């Protein structure tokens, strides 16, 4: 592609401002269009979202599908990273393409889903402004953690089976305390490389559905391993091993060793990501 750019240059002669127009020709320049792609995946067979050497990841599989279907090299940037075995009922990534009509192509979603494995699904592709970022434009993220109190072979890879009586009200008392803090070092993976452990938690609540317990937590951002560490600690509250009020002391300690063990990855789902309306075109 050849791009022609005209610049208006001013210069001064005898105190009078004059203008000339210069044209510059740039060859092999490509003006690309940015898109958000929304997907869901079952993370059991993957080493998380992000590409890693010698590992099968969701990002790697998705980029291969996009590159093949669109017939151009596609690189994606995800809204975040999910660990090995973690699922996503809604995940977003952005990519750039030379094609300017992908959001309007009716058969694109079907072609991508036909190419992708059964445990990854595309729900939509949306056009966004050029500087929109799946990661940095997000206003909030919501995770759900699923726990079952009865052994169920159909839930084995998507929930944590935990035997014993669990006090849901005590766990909700502990959850409400999270809203009073913003430094979650005690629930962060050690040596994660994160520049800050500051997060704003908007919601943290447990609900019951039959024999299942569901923990919903919404925040502006999450640290690596944060949700699983919180769930593991709250389960200790629910089993009566620590009082709900101890959650405050654990957070104030800013020490990962004070919190409980991380809950298994298989029960964790990224459930939603919120973006401002104005980034979609």
Task: Describe how the helices and strands are arranged.
Elements: E1 2-13, E2 16-27, E3 33-41, H1 58-70, E4 76-78, E5 87-97, H2 108-115, E6 120-127, E7 140-148, E8 160-161, H3 168-178, E9 201-209, E10 212-219, H4 226-238, H5 246-253, E11 268-274
Parallel strand pairs: 5-11, 7-8
Antiparallel strand pairs: 1-2, 3-5, 3-6, 4-5, 7-10, 7-11, 9-10
Helix pairs in contact: 3-4, 3-5
Question: Care to describe what's here?
Answer:
The two termini are 24 Å apart. The chain has 281 residues and is α+β, with helices and mostly antiparallel strands. The chain has helices at 58-70, 108-115, 168-178, 226-238, 246-253; strands spanning 2-13, 16-27, 33-41, 76-78, 87-97, 120-127, 140-148, 160-161, 201-209, 212-219, 268-274. It folds into two domains: 33-137, Pseudouridine synthase I, catalytic domain, N-terminal subdomain (Alpha-Beta Plaits, 2-Layer Sandwich), CATH 3.30.70; 140-273, Pseudouridine synthase I, catalytic domain, C-terminal subdomain (Alpha-Beta Plaits, 2-Layer Sandwich), CATH 3.30.70. A hairpin with a 2-residue loop joins β9 and β10 (212-219). Strands 3, 4, 5, 6, 7, 8, 9, 10 and 11 form a nine-stranded mixed beta sheet that branches. Strands 1-2 form a two-stranded antiparallel sheet.
């Amino acid at each position: 592609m050849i791009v022609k750019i005209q610049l208006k240059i001013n210069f001064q002669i005898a105190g009078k401002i004059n203008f000339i127009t210069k044209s510059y020709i740039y060859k092999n320049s490509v003006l690309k269009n940015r898109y958000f792609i929304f997907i869901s995946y079952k993370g059991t067979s993957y080493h998380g979202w992000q590409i890693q050497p010698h590992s099968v990841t969701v990002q790697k599989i998705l980029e291969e599908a996009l590159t093949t279907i669109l017939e151009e090299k596609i690189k994606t940037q995800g809204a975040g990273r999910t660990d090995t075995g973690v699922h996503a009922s809604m995940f977003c990534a952005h990519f750039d393409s030379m094609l300017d009509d992908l959001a309007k192509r009716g058969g694109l979603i079907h072609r991508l889903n036909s190419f992708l494995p059964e445990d990854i699904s595309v729900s939509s592709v949306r056009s966004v402004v050029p500087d929109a970022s799946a990661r940095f434009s997000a206003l909030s993220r919501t995770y759900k953690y699923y726990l079952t109190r009865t052994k169920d072979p159909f839930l084995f890879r998507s929930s944590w089976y935990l035997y014993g009586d669990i006090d849901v009200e005590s766990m909700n008392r502990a959850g409400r305390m999270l809203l009073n803090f913003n430094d979650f070092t005690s629930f962060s993976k050690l040596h994660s490389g994160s520049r800050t452990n500051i997060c704003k938690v908007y919601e943290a609540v447990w609900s019951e559905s039959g024999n299942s317990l569901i923990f919903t937590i919404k925040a502006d951002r999450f640290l690596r391993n944060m949700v699983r560490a919180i769930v593991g600690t709250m389960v200790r509250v629910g089993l009566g091993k620590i009082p709900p009020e101890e959650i405050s002391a654990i957070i104030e300690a800013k020490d990962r060793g004070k919190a409980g063990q991380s809950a298994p990855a298989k029960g964790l789902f990224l459930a939603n990501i919120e973006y401002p309306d104005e980034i979609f075109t």
